[in-house]
Amino acid sequence: MSYSKELIASLEAKGQLLRKDCIKCIGVGVAGHVGGSCSSADIMAALYFYKMKYDCKNPEWDGRDYFLLSKGHVAILQYSALAEAGFFPVEDLLHCKDIGFYLQGHPHLGTPGVEAGTGSLGQGLSLGLGMAIGLKLDQKPNRVYVLVGDGEQNEGQIWEAAMAASAKGADNLCAIVDNNGLQAQGTIEDRLNTFDIAEKWRAFGWNVLQINGHNMEEILTALDAAEECKDRPTVIIAHTVKGKGISFAENQTGYHNKVLTKELYEQALEELSK
Q1: pTM for this structure?
Q2: Considering only CA atoms, which of 216, 269, 261, 264 is closest in space to residue 17?
Q3: Which of 37, 78, 93, 265 could form an SS bridge with 22, CB 3.0 to 4.6 Å?
Q4: Which backbone phi and psi does 258 adopt, to 5 degrees?
């Protein structure tokens, strides 16, 4: 399937906008997950502004697709997408993590558009599978998308859910792995090497697609192909750059969760505006 240049350009711009919104969420002097938010931004743009069905005025709409942010520590990215999609005012992003405010460090029920509390790594795929099975039992066409981290592949519950999803033929479930090669305390290879993850997912019975997670046409093609796949779930392994778009943060483990100075905050916004 071919996509118009206008669509690709619009979604690429949306990905950059989400990165800028994430930086605004973090602000100055408060730690925030720069790296994994920026690496997933193009994927999030494709999901919210191309692929998923939803009604921002009625978040509980029965016909919606479901999205779960299993790597819940990058909640600011989902908040940015939800705000830009109209679930709540974009201006509210500036109050992220304020005490008592509804946009906290991890997604939780009560935030418009959030389907489940996430952030305890490994659990999101199991939650998504339960939703997917429930939808199939009710003979509904809704789809479920779960964004997981590559460091999250260390968790045993990921593989329990993967095995169960294949056994149940959950073809309405799509997992997306943000494969940026870094986790909180080092490289994936050095911490607990989970490679080759494509072969692992394939061995668990999944339809496996590998893409450049910053190539919008590849992202859209994979999302459409996942919907066409029947009788088994699909995992999209998106090869990405941690901290994408910000020169001082790209491929830097230290920017997994980092406090920005006023100078770095301004530099990030400037670079993401180009």
Answers
A1: 0.97
A2: 269
A3: 37
A4: -140, 145
